[in-house]
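Thread: UDP-N-acetylglucosamine 1-carboxyvinyltransferase, structure

OP (GT): Posting the sequence first so everyone is looking at the same thing. Length is 442 residues per the record. Can we get the structure tokens written out before standup tomorrow? I want them in the notebook alongside the other entries.
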Amino acid sequence: MTLAALNSPVGLNESQLSIVGRQRLEGELHVNGAKNSALVLMAASVLSCDSIRLRNMPDLTDIGTMAKILISLGVGFHLEGSSAVLRSDGLTRHDPSYDLTRKLRASFFLIGPLLARHGVAKVPLPGGCRIGSRPVREHNKGLQAMGVRISIEGGVVSAEVQGNHGRLQGCSIDLDCPSVGATETLMMAATLAEGETVLRNAAQEPEVVDLAGLLKAMGARIHGAGSSTIRISGVRKLHGADYAVIPDRIEAATFLIAAAATRSRLHVTPMEPNHLNAVLAKLEEVGCSVNPQGQGITVTTPGQLRGCDLRTQPFPGFPTDLQAPFMALLTTVQGTSFVTETIFENRLQHVAELQRMGAQIRTCGNVAILEGVPMLSGVAVTGTDLRAAAAMVIAGLAADGVTHVAGLEHLDRGYARLEERLQAVGARISRIGATRPALLAA
Ligand code: UD1
């Protein structure tokens, strides 16, 4: 080991971002395809034997993990630039391994397409994660209503369609909560079921609408995606399709929030402003100027920023995935802010890290109460989950001095080459240690 390695804040196997804060950002940031859409669209490709071409795929470790899971089941997968071509005519297995699925909760969503295609699936329970317990009760309950017998043993959900020649049966399902994953799982299952399925209290997230877009392009009959009631009339077979993933609203908003936190001017494109109304309203409430321009949004900070209250909600409310990044912004605005997390029970872990940078935050249950301070100070911090890691980067960009952000295995799940893109708009940010794994090498 060299002296430099001994002095480095980085362990031998761990990479970090080093950020020299307080640089003004200026320019344009390009938004990649949405991770949460891309993952479920990949799962949906299993519903057809024909080729599915997905354009605008983000280059993320989560996408690489999902590709590996699909390949292990017999799905053909190859990349052509930023497009992925998937072909499931060779789908032979219905039992993804725990080794792969434990890395990616969204892999559980495969249970719907596998049951629709083969009438049988064995998928490990995804388990909880750092932000909460993340049950899949609603997914299983809906599948049971469609004629599936489910047993859970040794942490694995074994599911088999009963009777009806192995074909799922359309039915009426009332979700207890508008779960995004349950809505997507059941929507995919219902496309090949016999008869009509009505999903009530469905999630209305843009990613659900995007999934319906692909499924319709494959020949599915779906009405109402984006509202709380979705009707799916089952068909016998789905065909191939060529489909572009929507821009990532969470990535777009992360960039807009970074512009506000550094009191900068950034143009973020392409994006769909209607996917982010609740966030854009909060940026305006704290004093940012938010202007639609072309296919994107320009954010500027004309004067002093002030605190606001926010509460995470299912779409179209303020997204839980942006609670941590927005909190990083609120640490340095004038006055008091109340941030209430209502979706996940353990999603305030970034508070302790922000406090280490000098943020004044108290928590009471699921509420964080912030008193803005003039400036954060750069220290070594850890991103404890994907969006907490993004919050640490935003805090580091705004802070005085040098911030080292660890936990990049989380960050790389959802943001492709973040440091290179931020460098291009003036940030002094670099990666120390191992370089980020390329797609499929995760
Ligand atoms: C998806 C997103 C994730 C986002 C979350 C909420 C993907 C890959 N991930 O996760 O980034 O943070 O939506 O917007 O799309 N619940 C139950 N029972 C269930 C299922 C869920 O009580 O059976 C509860 C959860 O505990 C949580 C809430 O519903 O409180 C939302 O979870 P859900 O919408 O299912 O999240 P995911 O689909 O896992």
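GT: Both are above now. Quick notes for whoever picks this up: The first helix runs from residue 3 to 7. Residues 1-12 have pLDDT under 50 and may be disordered.
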